[in-house]
Amino acid sequence: MVCQAEGCDKPASWAEVHHLDPWSKGGKTDLNRMALLCRPDHRRIHSADYLHERLPDGTIRFSRRT
Ligand SMILES: [Zn+2]
Questions:
Q1: How far is ligand 1, taken at its centre, from the CA of residue 33, in Å?
Q2: What is the pTM assigned to this prediction?
Q3: Is 65 strand, coil or helix?
Q4: Whether 16 contacts 36, CB under 8 Å
Q5: Fewer CB within 10 Å, N- or C-terminus of the chain?
Q6: Measured in angstroms, how far is the CA atom of residue 18 from the centroid of ligand 1?
């Protein structure tokens, strides 16, 4: 598996799975609701400096918050 961030082909680690639904909201452990990310992109998805959206193919697109 490789990182699902747009334009990134680093190996993704299962240890770095990002859950798109918070558990507190009843998020399921469903691959459609998770993103496999490399370590730098996982840090980025939690960064206040970036917004992210999920494209129809499951890719995560980052954009810098302005
Ligand atoms: Zn990545």
A1: 17
A2: 0.74
A3: coil
A4: yes
A5: C
A6: 12
Closest C-alpha to 6, from 48, 43, 49, 58: 58
C-alpha 11 – ligand 1 centre gap (Å): 8
CA 49 from chain center: how many Å?
15
Give residue limits of the domains in the chain: 14-64
Residue 46 has phi, psi (to 5 degrees) of -95, 0
| Interacting residues of 39 by C-beta distance below 8 A, sequence separation 6+ | 13, 16
Quote the ligand 1 centre to 44 CA distance (angstroms): 9
Model confidence pLDDT, tens digit, residues 25-47: 555 555 567 789 999 999 999 99
The mean pLDDT value of the chain amounts to 83
